[in-house]
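Q: What structure does this chain adopt?
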Amino acid sequence: MNKKIVVIGSSNVDLIMKMDHLPEKGETVTNADFFQVYGGKGANQAVAAARAGGNVAFVSSVGEDAYTPQMLKNYKNDSIDTRFVFEEAGIASGHALIMIGDQGDNYLSVAPGANYKLTPERVDQALPVFEEAGIIVMQYEIPEETIKHVIDLANTRNIPVLMNFAPARQFDFSYIPKIDILVLNEVEAGFLAEMKVKNEQDAEQAAIKLIEQGVEKVIITLGAQGAFVRSKNEKIAVPAFKVNAVDTTAAGDTFCGAYAVANAEGMISRVALQFASAAAALSVTKMGAQPSAPTRTEIEDFLKQSL
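A:
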């Protein structure tokens, strides 16, 4: 694959507590296991895409702290192009505090730190990588003005944009039609389509509404109910793979990274969805965000056993 998957987004340090149940308000759970791993939706998607076989470049901002050298080393170990991972002085990297219960459900809080230093000016410094891009992948843990700037740059260069609108928050909706592929869960679909999404039928109506606004393709992930892709001409749904969930953190990120690879390789819609769904299923069987992203071999072996 010559064209790069250019992931533009966040890098975080994840501080994780695994416990037998999530605390109620005012409750202290004292028997947790502690882990420190690396995350951030952008970094998770970049790592997932690289391990799934993609030629990946990552554009991000990290802080001036003890975690940065290891973070960069990890990206390079996954053969990610880190030329435009900017090291910001006088600020910490993004941090996430994550509590995980016995069923794999989680509470999550994020301090953006250096992620909000990924400005349009920083993106302009990374323009050389746009010339190598086959697709651009983004999420919403970086400033809105940066996302809009990237979309404009991509549109003028005819580079498709895959946007994972996560976490769902206020956005200039006039930019939605400029996005080629939207990857959403039910909450994000409802937020963007400005409607309540309670089931798969609602999710499909939300997808149709977004397509009518100009989005070429909408993918909605439904957790244990699987995922579907909707465009003007097709709707294809695939069921979820049954696995024993240990930690659902970054399952959506793994899906996005693997789907970007499938798209870049020209897989047909059903095969691309199955490939991404298999990667996401494998990711929930392990602890941590980036440590749980499966390799290409693991994904292909799992598909052979499961289909």
